[in-house]
């Protein structure tokens, strides 16, 4: 299927397009024909449940005039009680070291709280908290920079998968010890993960947002995620952010930062992290800039409302059950942004772990 859509960078057209691209639940086709200038959808090419919202989510680099979006009808918010809430929705955020994954995670969580009037209970996890436990000799190697702590093998993926599964299944008393990145060890005290919303209501997690470099590199993690985001920051920007973070926040000498990046970080990104981005549903070339965060959050909220069966005209969203499709940013021509739609082979690039 050839690349097809041209997008005009105005907020009104983005909102109209988002409203018009309501999907039909019976179709899993990627075929579509949509003109953002005329706002006319071709009825012969129905939207798949995932394609329409993902397409709009790619507008991260359009520099909108404002990021204010209309809320869903108030009735949907009032119906979000424990008896109406659907199963926990899992959002995974991947990208290179220091790409801004935690920033995107926090921005999505904040926007979801705004959209729900503070009713959603949101849990945020970091893959870094699931680092493998090391003995003293290995911790000393890690502190000295002789041990590769950027590789996927440095994380206990079984532990992470089990934790996500427990949260999705609403198991009580899910706890996690805090990880001290400077000491390369976990603290003895464990913290309960049962979240409380802004209204003071404690209960099961409604939305789980997990960030980590390798969220797209392990088959189980990919299959457990309803929405998969990749923060695609360029190498120079990531290195600059890593230098600032490691020197100022972690007290690592500058020469050691560069040495660890060249020996471990660069290899990990080019060998495993970047190839896996073809598995993402949404690729963010600018992180939290632009309209992408608003539109991703709207898609999640849209899906929650649809699953809760609280709004008839606000159905759809980002969490279709069929095979995911990735949206890859194309080239910019004049004032229009070309967006390419490509199918993803889910068996490619998986690590045999």
Automatic annotation (TrEMBL):
Transmembrane segments: none annotated. Coiled coil: none annotated. Residues 90-287 form the Phosphoribulokinase/uridine kinase domain. It comes from the Eukaryota. One of its GO terms (molecular function) is kinase activity. Gene3D superfamilies: P-loop containing nucleotide triphosphate hydrolases. InterPro entries: P-loop_NTPase (IPR027417), PRK/URK (IPR006083). This is Phosphoribulokinase/uridine kinase domain-containing protein. It comes from Orbilia oligospora (Nematode-trapping fungus). The lineage of its organism: Eukaryota, Fungi, Dikarya, Ascomycota, Pezizomycotina.
